[in-house]
Amino acid sequence: MKQSVQLSALLLIMAGVIPFQACKKDEKDTPKTKTELITTGSWKMTANTVNPGIDIDFDGDTETNLFDYLDGCFKDDVTTFKTNGTAEGNEGASKCNNTDPQTYSLTWSFASNETKLNLDGDEYNLVELTATILRISYTLVDNGVSYTQETTFGH
């Protein structure tokens, strides 16, 4: 009889614990919204490409990797998106122009069912947004040629 009571008590305890664990798991598995993803931490450029390539250094060779040609003063800039639709840009340790302010304000929003990112009036295609990657692109037509520039940011 005593074993039966202990077994019943154990089953009741387990029945109470399992639903709570299941709820916790469900909360963890809920995917973050795009707003939650973009507003978590600051973003720093990690890559910048163009397709088709261009001869950026006028050596006769076509390059697609523009990041290697950027001055360091651009590579250390960070952008922090806020949930209220504003963002803060920070020039980082090295500024391209010493008279520029260290920080500046931007506005941002998603458009077209969160497939586009509007940043200070410019619209970019939202290629990828994860907890650690923000990838945007835009297309520019020059002399009848469409160039797609893709920029990747990371935390």
Largest sheet: 8 strands, antiparallel, barrel
Distance between the termini: 60 Å
The overall pLDDT average reads 87
Low-pLDDT windows of residues: 1-22
Multimerization state: single chain
Radius of gyration: 24 Å
Tally of DSSP β-strands: 9
Structural class label: alpha+beta
The percent range for helix content is 10-25%
What's the CATH class label of the largest domain? Mainly Beta
- CATH domain topology of the largest domain: Lipocalin
DSSP helical segment count: 3
Topology order in helix (H) and strand (E) letters: HHEEHEEEEEEE
- Going by CATH, the architecture of the largest domain would be Beta Barrel
Number of domains: 2
Strand content: 35-45%
Name the shape in a single word.
globular
Strand order of the largest sheet: 1-3-4-5-6-7-8-9
